[in-house]
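Reviewer has doubts. Consider these tokens.
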Amino acid sequence: MTVRKDLIIGGAVAVVALVSGGIYLSNGSGGSYADCVASNVAGGLDNFGTSFTLRNQKDEQVTDQEVFSKPSLLYFGYTYCPDVCPLDSARNAEAAEILKERGIELQTVFITVDPDRDTPEVLADFTDSFPGDMIGLTGTQEEIAAVNKGWRNYYKLNNQEDSEYYLVDHMTNTYLIMPGNETVEFFDRNKSPEEIADSAACFIQAAS
């Protein structure tokens, strides 16, 4: 990743400014989580998510039910991203570490928006860069498109002129997924690890 930074970091900053706001949502989750929900989404976060079968960084085929067997922070990005994706992934991993110290289990999941370059082997190198047991997922272009559509995640490959060092425009929200593939909250880039940890703890404790 480091050899690409000088070439594409300027473009990445512009991309983040364009898409980091992504979806501004209005609250739909209720029930036992009503006291925990801070974000809002038209129609409710119940409408987010989809079932899937993808390949993890160990090149194993896994389903959404297998991946989301425990509370998870889900992020869509790509390993060739020069700054945003590593920073957001590090923040999410830090939030999980904060909860680990409190005796609360929270895992992190990274789904690529760049499956042509992000093979299981490449994802393994990326996920190994962060504390905890981050899960990296990839698939075919069609499989990745379907998963992104399920979480309403915009992305666009800018690979028309450069097939090697291209950028990918993408949204930068992180989703909190409860066991059974239930999306209950989302966090934008402005949220700190502590804020994410506190919010996730509320949901996890409400479910227990």
User: Anything to note?
Assistant: The chain is about 35% helix and 20% strand. The chain has one domain: 2-207.
